[in-house]
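Question (not urgent): is this output format expected?
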Amino acid sequence: MHYDPIKNIIGNVARKNTVVRKFFYAVLGIIFLREWHVKRALRKILGKKHEPFSMFDAGSGFGQYSYYCAKHFPSATIYAVDVKEEQIADCRNFFIKAGVNNVAFEVEDLTIPKHTGRFDVILSVDVMEHIEDDVKVFRNFFQALKKGGKVLINTPSNLGGSDVHDESGKSFIGEHARNGYSVEDITRKLKSAGFHMEKVSYTYGPLGSIAWRLGIKYPMVMLNKSKLFFFVLPFYYLLTLWLTLLFMLADYSVRNSRGTGLLVVAVKK
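Got this back:
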């Protein structure tokens, strides 16, 4: 199954005007459990920063994390990149219309080194599973950070991430270069790039995984079969959203001993 065609349709709707785009960001913040975990980790890393700092949104997608950080941390200077030119053009257009002037968007390939000692924080959400040469990207992240800077990575784990549950399984998402990381694998690769590990935790435990199926996977499967299911989705979520949110809250509130997602924080000392 491929996410990109569905994402493109949703993106075409979301880019119609700034009000629709902001509503779209709000919906993403509600139904995607990873946003709950990532935003909490960002708040912990950044605290109540008032002094200026620089952030690299490495794989900005729809731009929702750059928007969140720009609004919650107005002293931040954010540099956001993606490999998709249309995505970057779309984000530029929205941020200008929305009057958000502390974010710059550029087309960039993360495997090509571009920055040295530039950023205080790097954010990479659901990006590394799409890149084959991940070690090169980790080295570029290390080079791009200032001393004491931190990288926050969210990615699928090897314990059912991408909805793969054995070595012969195929990713639920066709655009993935790998199914997921083990704690040992991502730790080893980040350390080889020069990082010191600060935190590695599981997200999407048993209840979070159920929430993902109810809230994301099943709707995506339906939409891949026929775009007519867009008309069914409001009724589907009317029936299932309360249960999905309950399971998400449970996952967010506990420390998972295992899960299909990984949240990683590493520092350049």
